[in-house]
Amino acid sequence: MYDDRIKYFGDEKGVLNRKAFTAYKYYKDRKDQYKMLMDLFDRTFELNGNEVLKNNLIAYMDVIRRYKQSGGNLSDEAVLDKYSLISDIISFQMEKKDDDQLPVIQENVDKILLATVPVDCALLEQKFVPKMNETKDPKLAKKVLQLMLTAKCSDSPSFVQAAELVYGQEPTAGLAKVIAIKHVGTGNVDIGNSWYDKALELSEDNLEKADIYMSKAQVFSNKGLKQEARSNARKALANDPSLKDAYTLIGNLYMHSFQECKQGVSKVEDRLVFIAAYYQFEKAGNTSAMQSAKEQFPSTEEMFELTLSEGQSMTVGCWINETVKLMKRP
Questions:
Q1: Cα Rg for the chain, rounded, in angstroms?
Q2: Any idea where the domains of the chain sit in the sequence?
Q3: In terms of DSSP H, where are the helices of 170-307?
Q4: What DSSP character marks residue 64?
Q5: How many CB atoms lie within 10 A of CB 275?
Q6: Using an 8 Å Cβ cutoff, are 148 and 159 in contact?
Q7: Low-confidence ranges of the chain (pLDDT < 50)
Q8: Distance CA 221, CA 230 (A)
Q9: Cα–Cα distance measured from residue 195 to residue 192, given in angstroms and rounded to the nearest whole number
Q10: Angle between helix 206-222 and helix 244-255 axes, rounded to 10 deg
């Protein structure tokens, strides 16, 4: 009937758009019909392009899979070319209309691709990355990003390149944070921090901001910049007071400040950093760290020599600059 309609009334484009999915439903389990389905979908997508019906998107990718796995004459590169065509159409349709099904369709198309050909990092670098770098096309970069995530290629330098191209078109806090993490992980700490700042500018969620500030705090801590690390940890707590890891981080900063802060005049004053650390661990509910800090408190003898007593307020100097109540080690 479809063929007769085309024969007598024309409109091959519109009729094939409907015929393709009907044929898929009836013949998807018939290996002897896979070549026919392949040719039918090829022609349908050739004629309709971005106007292909939504039902045909997953169906075409599944036909590609079935035809290839049944021994059809289809190379891995040809599969990737057809996948690219389908993904481009999905991207186009997502731009033109708000349809919650389209992102799900793309996810399913990605899954079918991975079940069709062995997509690995080397293949992606060879097939997509050169064109992405040449064209700087955000749409292609988004596709590369999705495939690299699916194929677990996020450690590739091209992953960051793709992410930055996508960010230029669709800036989001989440993507900026991913880029920051990757730069920090490869030793580009200053660049990573600048991306964390971009993430903060875009974020409107307090919990997300707290997470970003904590990431910055850890970066500064690793660089030995204790004041900057504490400042960001405190900003994290301002956005999420329940973030116990922030207190632990500050406590560890204090614990590791003994050598740089001690003056060698008073053992009691030098060990106040451990009491300050204890306070932070206590807020975190970190009992093991509290015990470690306690073991470094001033001794009874050291306090006696200076006529000091427990509970007495004292100021921790150096960069910490906090007031604590004197405690002795067990």
A1: 31
A2: 1-117
A3: 173-185, 189-202, 206-222, 226-239, 244-255, 258-261, 267-270, 272-284, 287-294, 300-305
A4: H
A5: 24
A6: yes
A7: none
A8: 8
A9: 5
A10: 20
**What is the C-alpha separation between 148 and 162, in angstroms, rounded?**
9
The structure tokens listed for 295 are 């073991």
What lies within 8 Å, CB to CB, of 100 at 6+ separation is none
- Please report, as a single letter, which amino acid is at residue 191: I
Q: Tokens 């289809």 belong to which residue?
A: 74
Burial label, 183 (beta-carbon count in 10 A; 0-12, 13-18, 19+) = buried
Q: What pLDDT shows up at residue 96? A: 85
> 224: exposed, middle or buried (C-beta count within 10 Å: 0-12, 13-18, 19+)?
exposed
Tell me which amino acid residue 123 is: L
Structure tokens at 244: 């116990």
Amino acid found at 43? R
Secondary structure element (H or E) that encloses residue 155, with its range = none
Assigned token pair, 129: 């990355």
CA–CA dist 186, 179 (Å, integer): 11
User: Does pTM surpass 0.90?
Assistant: no
pLDDT in tens, 195-225: 999 999 999 999 999 999 999 999 999 999 9
Residue type, 276: A
Q: Which two tokens stand for residue 38?
A: 């392949």
